[in-house]
């Protein structure tokens, strides 16, 4: 009796496991993307900041002021801020300073007091910024307002060494460095996040199908009439007026998953590297192609012409030209109607075409009208 009970329990457990496994296998494999991964909020973006400053403390690798006179003027203006005037007409060589461009990216919603990273690049002929310190530099936005102040010690990944005879060795780029957290925000950038009764998602890749699917997914989640696709990029969504409620609202929206629309049929050819990418949905009309290479070799030489015996002729040097022509005979292959990507690749690989030859074949197919895709050369 106990054996029967145990057997029934094991049987029920096995049946339950089979049902769970069957339900798992029956679930479709989702390849959907979150809205936050395929779109951005309009009016909420990072802002580029830039400024010009001085790097000091260099070990003789700074600017040569004779070739970069603005370095001396910048240094003069810097000392004037602290009440240290330099007599007019003074000629000085300071190889331990360099004029630099300071760049930073101010994230959206950055508040005063928050730190951001900065990149420092030489503007003149400084050999290296290794070991330098960026003096206080004001970083401005496109409107000319100061939004951050940068200062600190540089981290330079490059290395440059120069010998007395003029020989030099350079690893990476020693004239560019970074300062993690080197700038402090002093002004907040206003955004349009809390303005109006709606928000707009802008797709990173314009596509009418994706825009329609995003609006449909939002309407299914939040209710009909919530979202409207304005064009192939923008999707307008009604949003609450309260700022706290709007934050929670956007947090829900950006995690909705959407299946993106498929790309148009394209063939990308990089003429410099020979890289060729054939996208999906690439088709060809009926076409016959023969692939071969013609090799023409011309060699120049000289021969000696001897006169006949007992003649009054003279020995002469005459040019000789040899022309050799070779042509590889490859079989012609045929593309049927609606041939797919795999058919194209297999057929072209069968004739041993190199990337350059493959590009020529694809271009010929496009010119003949047989390639049903956009051919883009980069």
From TrEMBL:
InterPro entries to which the protein is assigned, alphabetical: Flag_FlgI (IPR001782)
Places the protein is found: Bacterial flagellum basal body
GO CC, alphabetical: bacterial-type flagellum basal body, distal rod, P ring; outer membrane-bounded periplasmic space
Domain of life, source organism: Bacteria
Chain's role: Assembles around the rod to form the L-ring and probably protects the motor/basal body from shearing forces during rotation.
Entry protein name: Flagellar P-ring protein
Single GO MF descriptor: structural molecule activity
Pfam family, one: FlgI
NCBIfam families to which the protein is assigned, alphabetical: PRK05303.1
Subunit structure: The basal body constitutes a major portion of the flagellar organelle and consists of four rings (L,P,S, and M) mounted on a central rod.
Coiled coil regions in record: none
One GO term (biological process): bacterial-type flagellum-dependent cell motility
Bilayer-spanning residue ranges: none
Record PANTHER family: FLAGELLAR P-RING PERIPLASMIC PROTEIN FLGI, FLAGELLAR P-RING PROTEIN
Family: Belongs to the FlgI family.
Species annotation: Pseudohongiella nitratireducens
Keywords: Bacterial flagellum, Cell projection, Cilium, Flagellum, Signal
């Amino acid at each position: 009796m106990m054996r029967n009970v145990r057997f029934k329990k094991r049987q029920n457990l096995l049946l339950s496991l089979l049902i769970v496994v069957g339900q798992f296998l029956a679930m479709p494999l989702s390849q959907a993307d979150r809205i936050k991964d395929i779109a951005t909020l309009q009016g909420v973006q990072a802002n580029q900041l830039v400024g010009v400053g001085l790097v000091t403390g260099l070990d003789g690798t700074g600017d040569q002021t004779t070739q970069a006179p603005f370095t001396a003027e910048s240094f003069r203006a810097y000392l004037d801020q602290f009440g240290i005037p330099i007599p007019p007409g003074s000629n000085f060589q300071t190889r331990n300073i360099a004029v630099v461009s300071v760049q930073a990216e101010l994230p959206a919603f950055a508040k005063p007091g928050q730190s951001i990273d900065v990149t420092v690049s030489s503007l003149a002929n400084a050999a290296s910024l290794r070991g330098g310190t960026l003096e206080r530099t004001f970083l401005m936005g496109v409107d000319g307002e100061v939004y951050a102040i940068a200062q600190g010690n540089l981290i330079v990944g490059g290395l440059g060494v120069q010998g007395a005879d003029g020989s030099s060795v350079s690893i990476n780029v020693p004239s560019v460095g970074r300062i993690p957290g080197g700038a402090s925000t002093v002004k907040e950038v206003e955004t349009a996040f809390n303005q109006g009764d709606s928000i707009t998602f802008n797709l990173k890749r314009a596509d009418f199908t994706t825009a329609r699917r995003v609006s449909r997914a939002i309407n299914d989640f939040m209710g009909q009439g919530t979202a409207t696709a304005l064009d192939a990029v923008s999707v307008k969504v009604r949003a609450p007026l309260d700022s706290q409620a709007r934050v929670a609202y956007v947090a829900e929206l950006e995690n909705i998953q959407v299946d993106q629309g498929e790309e148009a049929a394209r063939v990308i050819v990089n003429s410099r590297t020979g890289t060729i990418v054939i996208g999906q949905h690439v088709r060809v009309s009926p076409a016959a192609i023969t692939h071969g290479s013609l090799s023409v070799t011309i060699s120049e030489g000289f021969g000696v012409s001897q006169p006949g015996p007992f003649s009054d002729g003279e020995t002469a040097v005459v040019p000789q030209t040899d022309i050799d022509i070779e042509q590889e005979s490859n079989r012609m292959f045929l593309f049927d109607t609606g041939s797919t990507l795999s058919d194209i690749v297999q057929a072209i690989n069968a004739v041993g075409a190199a990337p350059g030859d493959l590009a020529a074949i694809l271009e010929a197919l496009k010119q003949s009208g047989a390639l049903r895709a956009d051919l883009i050369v980069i």
